[in-house]
Design goal:
Elements lengths: L5 E5 L5 H12 L11 H8 L4 E8 L4 E8 L7 E9 L8 H12 L8 E7 L4 H8 L3 E11 L12 E10 L5 E5 L4 H9 L5 E5 L12 E7 L4 E8 L4 H12 L6 E7 L4 H11 L3 E6 L7 E7 L13 H16 L11
Parallel strand pairs: 4-5, 8-9, 11-12
Antiparallel strand pairs: 1-2, 2-3, 3-4, 5-7, 6-7, 10-11, 12-14, 13-14
Helix pairs in contact: 1-2, 3-4
Amino acid sequence: MTNDTYIVEPFKPADAEGVSRLFSEVYGDRYPVRTVYEPDQLIAASRGGRYFPFCVHDRSGKVIGYGALNSSAPFRGIYEFVQGVVSPDCQGGGIGTLLFEFVEKYMPTLPHCEVYFGEAVCNHIHTQKAGALIKTIETGIEVDLLPGNQYGKRDDAPVRVAAVDMFRTFVPKPQVVYVPAVYDEIARYIYGGFDDSRTIRNAAGPETGTGPLTQMSVSAFESAHVARISVPVVGPDFMEQFNKEQEMLAGRDIRVIQAWLNISRPVAAAMTEELRRHGYFFGAFCPRWFDEDCVLMQRIIGDPDWDHIHLYSGRSGKILEFIRSDWKETAGTEREAPHE
């Protein structure tokens, strides 16, 4: 894909040195995914079958923009746009938009592609705006997701950076989702504007009788001070397992704990409500995350950095309004001192 000044095309091994220079130019040595600084590792990742990078070149051949589509969610058919970066000398020149336009055309060519996912940072609105141009739809906000020092050290730099979750369906899969009554209104608002159909049901309590036991895994990202608890199967033993995982995280330098719960069975509604009683608040609905939808619940140690959340759309603004209200009702009553 080209215009009069720039060329956007899939990554080639010859681009690796230029990509490393670009990340050093933009982030110094602070970018947490170290692969981008190691050309050999970057080339190997591009050949792994789940990571598909691409570059923007100027007419001299210099790499002045970069991004990748990565199949990183539990469901193989979701591709996430990651690592979007533009040279400081070229920012404001429409390169970010070119990257997103390339993504829209490139995604359907990738293996198993069914859903687009992006986490658009909120220290500015450019990525959110570009996502809207390719018809992605906001489904939630991950509060305090990233450390602010990745985005400069100015006096006005954020303490933490939030991200808007944005999805787009390429292959529809209508389904039933179960949410507690307290989330019925926000569920109908988010899914009512989504590009695939959902039937929303409330459940008053956990399922009775026998059922599958909970499946759960934990990933901790120490450099970002974030832990993610993934729950592809929610069973009646959920809180017992969840509390054990929380206890193991208690001694680590974690500021943000996220829980990603499959909401395809009635028991999920009861367990979502139970998390609210333990200081968790709403984050997002994530279509097809486990091939079935999930709800993202989040807990922040200390007060979230609300002041640096900048949003592009009125839809995102309404979602944030609900999230702040839910935080006040739940986690806002159990604040702890933030990490320095």
